[in-house]
Every structure is written in structure tokens, then in C-alpha cells.
Amino acid sequence: MNEKYLELISKIPLTDSDKLLLSWGYNLVNEYLEIITQSELDSQNPVLELATGTGRMSALLTRLGYDVVTGDISTDDREKAENRIGKEHLNKV
Predict the structure, then answer these.
(1) Which residues, in sequence order, are bridge partners of residue 50?
(2) Interval 26-57: pLDDT, tens
(3) What are phi and psi of 32, to 5 degrees?
(4) 78: alpha, beta or left? (left if phi > 0; alpha if psi -120 to 50)
(5) In terms of Cα–Cα distance, which of 43, 79, 38, 80 is closest to 62?
(6) Which helix (H) or strand (E) holds 15?
(7) Long-range contacts, stretch 46-50, CB < 8 angstroms, 24+ apart
(8) Is residue 5 scored above 80 in pLDDT?
(9) Which of 7, 10, 28, 63 would you call most buried, defined as having the most Cβ atoms within 10 angstroms of its Cβ?
């Protein structure tokens, strides 16, 4: 994987579920990165990201420079999502 991407991913805070998945040898953030890099997303248009949860995908998208419109059925994890996205990237959401 590209060094730039490794550094970018390393700055996204891990949740307990990320840590559990990593202990099993599975990195969901890497999978999301693969999806994004293989997609033909237009950085001039916002990305709609549904089922935001704790903000894993939104954190990655905003760090890659995309504007993101998020949504979830519940606001229970909103604080976790905002913390994961980070103050410096919340303006992209």
C-alpha cells in the first residue's frame, strides 16, 4: 500500500470494533480505502455516505479531500463519528 495512504490511515482513531477486527487479521479501513480508490468518485461533488455509525468511512473520505453528506437512523454514535473524523475535517461533512 502507498506510504501516503498508510500515514493517512494511521491517523484515524480506532474503535473497539476496529481493534477486534485487527486482532482477527482484518482491517476494515484498508478495505474501505480499496473501495474508494477503485471507484470513480468525482471530488467536485459530495459523496453520500449512509449508515455512518462511528464514522469510519467519513473519516477516510474527508482525509482524502471529499465533501461528505452523512446519515444514520440513529444519532447515538454521532459524538464518536465526530471524534473519529476529527475537528480539522468536520468542515468537509
Answers:
(1) 71
(2) 998 889 999 998 998 988 999 999 999 999 99
(3) -60, -40
(4) alpha
(5) 43
(6) none
(7) none
(8) yes
(9) 63
pLDDT at 9 (0 to 100) = 87
Pairing verdict, β 68-71 and 47-50: parallel
Residue 2 or 77, more confident: 77
The full DSSP string for 54-88 is T-HHHHHHHHTT--EEEE-S--TTHHHHHHHH-TT
pTM exceeds cut of 0.85: yes
**Which grid coordinates belong to 56?**
469510519
Alpha carbon 86 to its chain centroid, in Å, reads 11
What's residue 4's pLDDT? 84
R_g of the chain, CA atoms, integer Å: 13
